[in-house]
Write a structure and sequence with these properties.
Elements lengths: L2 H18 L12 H4 L13 E4 L1 H7 L15 E14 L7 E15 L12 E3 L15 H7 L17 E3 L2 E2 L1 E10 L2 E7 L10 E6 L11 E7 L1 H15 L11 E2 L8
Antiparallel strand pairs: 1-2, 2-3, 3-8, 3-11, 4-7, 5-6, 5-9, 7-8, 9-10
Amino acid sequence: MGRNSRSGLTGCLLAVLLVGIGGGMAHAGDDYATTFTPEADQAYQEDINVWVYTQGFAERFGMPEKWVSGKLEGAHAAAFRVETSSARLMFPHKGKDVSKPVRRCVLDLFLPNEADIPWANDKVADIWWYTPEAPTYLMPQREEDKQWQRRPVGIPHPGKKARRPLVYFDEGTINLRKYRKKLYPGLDYLSFSIGCYTPPDDRTTIEFREDKAWKGDNYHVLHEVVLPAGFMKRLRARWRKDSRQPASGERENVIQGSEQKGGE
């Protein structure tokens, strides 16, 4: 093989790798269909999200018309996925190398910048670490490190006044994983862990509540997002397919792993 042939092959392989990881070469086309579907006619990154968005969002980002909804309120877009970690959840008390996959059910919101969100501070972006990120495995021993780890990130934990979570999803708790303000002009990105329990399949609201004293069931909603029933039905179908059972599932759903041999 000649020098030019080898350099050409190297260039092709590099292009494929970059497309595969969503890198700078991942621009097979100018819209979703020709970049993240077989229409790309080359390697593309699979999208595991279930989407819903406004007509304006679809036009701005070249998204398919089939996921446009006029019933989405308070957000430009929402996306749900089940993430499977390369790490396993181990059960040594149940047997040698008994484990099951670690799955997380994630809901992303794309909100207008002007949405009244109870931010903890003026930081532009932040993240909580999740397995298998290396910082997950650091167990603070110093008290100052422990206090730093417990600091509010993004949206603060409720104080004594509210007594309840400041962000409600179908009247349940959801936790902010990470966020980036002004992901694009006019657009904030928030990612929540919603727990892999049976999700609702009907119209669902997400409420961002102010940390003020409550009187009975009267609370202060700063911003509300309404997820339409059609999206929730598709979300539930994807949850059933990808998560199968919540983390608290029955014992028979635990995978009995074989003893690993060798190693590094």
